[in-house]
Amino acid sequence: MVKYNQISVEAPLANAFKSVGETAIAQIVSFGALAGLTTVMLILMLGQSRVFFAMSRDQLLPPMFARVSERRRVPYLTTMVTGSAVALMAFLLSLTTLAELVNIGTLFAFVLVSIGVVVLRRTQPDLKRAFRTPLVPLIPILSVLASVWLMLNLASATWLRFAVWMAVGLVVYFGYSRRNSRLAGEQTAEPRAQGAVATGTAGS
Fold first, then answer.
1. Helix 95-123, helix 156-172: angle, nearest 10
2. DSSP single-letter state for residue 124
3. What is the sign of the dihedral through the CA atoms of 100, 176, 86 and 58?
4. Angle at 132 between CA 126 and CA 134, to 5 degrees
5. DSSP sequence for 127-139
6. 67 CB contacts (<8 Å, ≥6 apart)?
7. Cα separation of 36 and 30, whole Å?
8. Mean pLDDT, the chain, whole residue set
9. How many CB atoms lie within 10 A of CB 59?
């Protein structure tokens, strides 16, 4: 319908139908795109609130974020905080800026997951898994390279915002999460338990 060098970047499919006089179909496509974007945003917000809930349950965040509504059985506090933060960012930043921030954050998560596949395959090869990535380490390496390449094509301002967000995360981690996490508590309790066993054995 449209030559490749005349495709609209903002709404390619809807504008393509408009160019051939199919205005009604273009409106249906635009409505579908709006509904799809709304659904994706809601799913991302719900997913992020559950991530904060899980982090709080593992004591990586203050325990108040693990509170669940007695009536609805949902983490209401993390949902409200996430929704307020998203609304504030949507008010202050442009859609392009938000999209680039989501892109670089998602790609960085892909990098960490791909590295984690290789690390866990070597450190815990017998761990029970629901799915095993084939051709390790080739596929994780290719995934890391592809994600990093896409990240490098993002604007420098996006990298700056990403660095600031990472700095905030590191401050939270080293200021609170590292010493209060459930894993840290288990690692501290294990030497104590071993010491108690050794003391009891020596006493007997």
1. 60
2. -
3. positive
4. 120
5. ---S---SSTTHH
6. 75, 76, 77
7. 10
8. 86
9. 18
Q: How far apart are CA 26 and CA 18, in angstroms?
A: 6
The secondary element (H helix, E strand) that includes residue 203 is: helix 182-203
The three-state secondary structure class of 184 is: helix
One-letter identity of residue 73: R
Given a cut of 70, is residue 198 above it in pLDDT? no
Residues in CB range of 137: below 8 A, 6 or more apart: 117, 118, 121
Q: Is the separation of the CB atoms in 139 and 133 below 8 Å?
A: yes
Calculate the alpha carbon distances from 156 to 101, 143, 169, 185, 193 in Å.
11, 22, 20, 39, 50
Which of the 8 DSSP states describes residue 68?
A: -
58-79 pLDDT tens trace: 989 999 989 998 888 889 899 9
Note whether 117 and 133 are within 8 A (CB): yes
